[in-house]
Fold these 4 entries.
Entry 1:
Amino acid sequence: MRKLAYFVLPFALSALSGCSTETTESDNVKTRAIWSNIYVTSGGDDSRVIAELNLTDEFGNNISLSSSDKLEASVGNDTKSLEKHTDVFDVDYRAIFDAHSENTQYVVNFVRSEDNVTLTNTLTLPRPFEILAPQKNQSFAKSESLVIEWSNYNTADKLDVTLNSICKLKDGATQGNAEKFENITDDGKLTIDLEALDMFTDENLNTRQDCTLDLLVERFRLGNVDNNYAAGSKSRASQQRRLSDISISLR
């Protein structure tokens, strides 16, 4: 499945963010009304546990933990409290672990004092890998195919591949696009026809200027979601590898 996102800088952040900027304290929310997105990511050096809590669904108010509630993550005997992290659009809770190998298991507990209940998600990291092709700073013409290759393939897991492009428009503005290929078979290779991508066929593009393309490959496993969370809550662990500064000629 392919998904395309479009934005013109400098409005990229507001265009891409679907989250509410409002915040509600957790003491004021019933447990069954808390939507969660709990995920683990590793870039190969360590791993991060991140928990996002919203009111009712993905687009509801951000939920900030009251002093009586807590989020904790455990890897084996190592247990850490998730610390609050705030940016312009979102509130989440994070912890960093040294562990990042295949089959590392993470147990994330949300302790709710008012309801006297602990919600538990369990996640397991997939096998690490490296991007073998293309290479950083490599150049391609729009008429070519982009062949992505990675190591340690042939697992039971799936991959998502995201392309992020920055191109110049004829009026001098800068345009960003993101296109995502979801649930890719983990067979070590994905071929993308660059000329078939909408991000490189917009008639408003300045074809005298090359576009810059960044690549994100994610091998993932879905985790369990405690059934006391609101419907649609998510849980996922992924190995992520990035590649930047690929040049795409539009001429």
Entry 2:
Amino acid sequence: MKILLTGGVGFVGSNLTPALLKNPLVSELTVLDSLRPTANPEIISSFCNSPKFNFVNGDIRDSELVDNLVRDTDVVINLAGETHVDKSIADSKLFFEVNVLGTHNLLQASLKHGNKRFIHISTDEVWGHSVNGTIFNEQSPYAPRNPYAASKASADHLVRSYGITHAVPFNIVHFTNLYGPWQYPDKLIPKSILRLINERKIQIHGDGKNMRMWLHVEDSVSGVTKVLERGVPGESYALGSHDEKENIEVARLLLEFFGRPTSEIEFVTGRPGNDLRYCVSYDKIHKNLGWEPRVDFQDGLKDEIDWFKKHGDWAGRRR
């Protein structure tokens, strides 16, 4: 199959692209990426030796470019997007332009060129925050609480509407909080690792009691691959994990790995509307597609620390 992967040299894309190139079902992989600051353009050269690989520097907001690329593909995997909550609070316009209007361009092209299969990557944040022990699943009502989450919820609804109205064969894949190599250091774990490498304190929003479920990027890649290979058209799949921790717990683990005292935690003002907890069930994808998370959180955290220590040049350009 011929695949168009948008956002293919961002964090998840940097890990998904090599997996797709190794997949025997994939005959051609075209990566479309606008190479914004969160992308990893230095990895492109490592893929160019594959005869399957094509790279296009472009934006999903460019409807003409998108139309040309989708015409010659079998499957669209839409990873492209703006994802940082704090930035969406400061200025949300770009988030809706990319996450909603960009998705619209891809859907229009998919429809125009014979209802191409469409795999859309979303987030657990579309369901808001989990209170009173609630565990979200694919049937949970949408209740986004920040502009980023609202833009992703809007895109999800758009994708689903094209499936219902136009019979575009779609899947939506919801990630919980990810971590791992090549993650841009504006998120909690990579940002904290880099601060510790540079002898600075870890910064934690509020009192650190906000709880997140953590999934290693390798497990997110295997989940998308399962959906590509076996996903039922029209179905959504949530990728959760076994690892749910308060932010303060994550900070203490990192300090322990670095041999630093807990006094090296600096509490800063929390963002407006900061979600208290994300908790997602992966029962559906486990039961129907046989997927489950494999990477233990502490093992993955140690590996990420080692990765950042070995990639100081890359990390330094992003501080």
Entry 3:
Amino acid sequence: MTAFLKMHGLGNDFVVFDARDSAFTLSAAQVRKIADRHFGIGCDTVVAIRPGGAEADASLLFYNADGSESESCFNASRCVARLLMDERGLARVKLLTKGGLLVASDAGKGLVTVDMGAPHLQWQQVPLAQARDTTSFTLEVGASSLPASAVSMGNPHCILFVPDAASAPVALLGPKIETLPLFPRRTNVEFAQVLDRGRIRMRVWERGVGITLACGSGACATAVAAIRRGLTGRKVELLLDGGALIIEWREEDGHVLMTGPTAMPFRGRVELDQL
């Protein structure tokens, strides 16, 4: 039997395995079974905590519900950061991901702030298959032409600014945009409604997962896109289906900071070979 933790950040939920002392690997088929909400444990993302070496307190691997691997998952990183800080009595930890090194700190009142580093804004960095001005470009989806922005937060994001996020066709357009040839690594898709200079309502289609209640990297990417367009100030509240995150794109060093809550509903054990 293998121990696991069930954690979530604003309803964006994870099955977390601690592989720091007993390394193991997960196949894509196992990840899909773990993530299955009817026949498995159920989650948006499966996370493996591994040794961090000399550079970090831990390294993280992220697996989407469809079994594919993701470079980053900021809500999951925030949850693991809280776990490690509580475990070791620390106020700050470093986490190594394939999307880059993250620094997380205790923000008080149960909140955790994660320094995401600087966003990647060049079209080659997102990446896109063709040159685009990532601040604003036209996205062709079937017969529709949609205004869009693109940002990489270590993983790719396509942001659509819409008049009403609540009625946006997330389930219809999300999977179509995710797999457009313009996005060679596929993409996460955010539908964002700017409410005022300090608030954005956002819904998200996550690459390899589908509609989720929250997406930390998506919230960061959306805030960056809005700031680049001059729609908001440099610190904004992102109102997601599962709750709110505070995102700041710091002017002095260009780093993006995300602050939000974490939760661990339960611990369990699973027989991976029996799923």
Entry 4:
Amino acid sequence: AKLLKGVAEAFDLADPPERIEIYDNSHISGTNPVGAMVVAGPEGFMKGQYRKFNMKSEGLVGGDDFGMMREMLTRRFTRLLKEEDERPNGEDPTWPDLLFIDGGQGQVSAVLAVLAELGIDDVPVVGVAKGPDRDAGREHFFVPGKPSFMLAARDPVLYYVQRLRDEAHRFAIGSHRARRAK
């Protein structure tokens, strides 16, 4: 609860998030591209909610991280909107309170474009980019409408976000390896 309150403060959220979705993708020079969604909440990682996305777009050029992010988020939120329409009154689908995107301003812009296309404007998006020399602890955060920023080196929220990002990375790489093996 304390960490989620810290996340809300660090990223200017009204309330601590109940459902955080973290997105990453994996490929080797564009081959067998896979996207991954990891979910976390007050009880920790919600492994039953994890999803992988085998990229299907014909137009994806090898290593097009922005295109992969667009496809993954389009598929995820189109499905979420469809589920919302199909549910009886009073039942809400599992909407995220916060999206962490592995990447910088480019990935965040791609995600915001997808959400705008779908008419979704109430889900906060934060890009998490590794720092110089890909050093852990020097991550830059990209929040729309603000300059990029870093959290203090020993901030528990920074460690928490690193764990979330690392889990998404682990899941994406594992899914990519499984796809390659097939």
